[in-house]
Design goal:
The protein is of the alpha/beta class and 141 residues long. It has one domain (17-139): Glutaredoxin, CATH 3.40.30. 28% of the residues lie in helices and 24% in strands. It has helices at 48-63, 79-89, 100-105, 133-139; strands spanning 20-22, 28-30, 37-43, 67-73, 95-97, 113-117, 123-128. Strands 5-4-3-6-7 form a five-stranded mixed sheet, covered by helices on one side. Strands 1-2 form a two-stranded antiparallel ribbon.
C-alpha cells in the first residue's frame, strides 16, 4: 500500500538548485517556491487518478494568484504524450518534464503526488493520490 509516510517529511528543506527542468514550452524552471506558496504536483500522463484530479489543480491555479503551481510529468513515453494530456485538460500552469533524479529526490512512489512549499521553500504539506480542489486549497494554508 502506498502511503504518505513514504514521502519527504514536512519541515524538510528542498535544495532548489538541484531541480532545474525544461518545461513543455522549452523554458527552464526551478522547483522552488520563489517567495510564494507553491504546489509541486507530480503526475504521469497514463495515470487515471491524475486525469481525475488535475482539473482541481487547474482550478486552484486560476482562482488563487497567491499560489504558484508547477506540475512535473514523470514516467512518460515521449513529450507528445505529455502535450496530449495537458491539452486535453487545458492546463495553463507550467508543466515541467521530470526525470528519474527528481523522482528519486522527491521520493515519488505513486501518482499523483504533490508537495506544498511555503515561501521559504519548506515542505508544509504533502499528499499521494486524489485530492479535491478544496483539499488542495486547505493544504496550501
Amino acid at each position: 500500500m502506498l502511503r504518505e509516510t513514504s514521502m519527504l517529511s514536512t519541515s524538510a528543506n528542498i535544495v532548489p538548485a538541484n531541480h532545474q527542468l525544461k518545461t513543455l514550452m522549452n523554458n527552464d524552471i526551478t522547483l522552488e517556491a520563489g517567495g510564494k506558496k507553491t504546489i509541486i504536483y507530480f503526475f504521469a500522463p497514463w495515470c487515471q487518478v491524475c486525469n481525475f484530479s488535475i482539473d482541481n489543480l487547474q482550478n486552484i491555479y486560476l482562482k488563487n494568484a497567491d499560489i504558484n503551481v508547477i506540475a512535473v510529468a514523470l514516467d512518460f513515453v515521449d513529450v507528445e504524450e505529455v502535450k496530449k494530456f495537458t491539452n486535453n485538460h487545458q492546463l495553463t500552469f507550467p508543466i515541467a518534464l521530470g526525470n528519474e533524479s527528481v523522482k528519486a529526490d522527491f521520493q515519488v512512489i505513486g501518482y499523483p503526488s504533490y508537495y506544498v512549499l511555503n515561501e521559504e521553500n519548506t515542505i508544509i504539506a504533502r499528499s499521494l493520490g486524489y485530492s479535491s480542489e478544496i483539499g488542495l486549497y486547505l493544504r496550501s494554508f
